[in-house]
Specification:
The chain is α+β, with helices and mostly antiparallel strands. It folds into two domains: about 90 residues; about 70 residues, Alpha-Beta Plaits (2-Layer Sandwich). The strands form two sheets. It has a four-stranded antiparallel sheet with strand order 4-5-3-6, with helices on one face. It has a two-stranded antiparallel sheet with strand order 1-2. The relative contact order is 0.12.
Amino acid sequence: MRIRLPLTDKFLWKLYSLLENAQGAYEPFAPRTMRRVLSPEWYNLKKSYEREKAKKAFSQFIYTLKTRGYIASTGSGEGILLTSKGKQKVFRAQLRLVTEKPRRDGKLVMAVFDVPEKKRHLRDIFREFLIAMGYKKLQQSVWLCGNDALEATERVVKEYRLEDFVKLFLIKTIEQ
């Protein structure tokens, strides 16, 4: 079954990928500007969405993304940035496309977490991720997964700076 993402999610995901790739290509002492690095890709991205979004002008689409807090303009007004809310939207879109692959070695991945109340939104995002990856709740903050999810989980923990609150284990079996 092919999952279709909403247009907003697809656009934010492509923008996120574009910015991630550009950061690796752009060096502070390079003789070119960030605008020159991004121009061809940004132009192609803009044109593809202008064609796809024929009924609504591209500028209205960008305005809507700004008012929802997914993107922000740079100080010079020449570029846009993906906000943390936009990154969360991209993350949730990526979760819809996750396919579960069982671990070949039969081991389980265990995630134990205790995220403080003041970071509740991060705890909720992490819980959504665990469910999407196929984790099952053993106790309130102890989750197990038989899928190959260790690397993806480590990446999410690092990206959201949850290292102090989440511990990951690779275990053979659980004794009843």
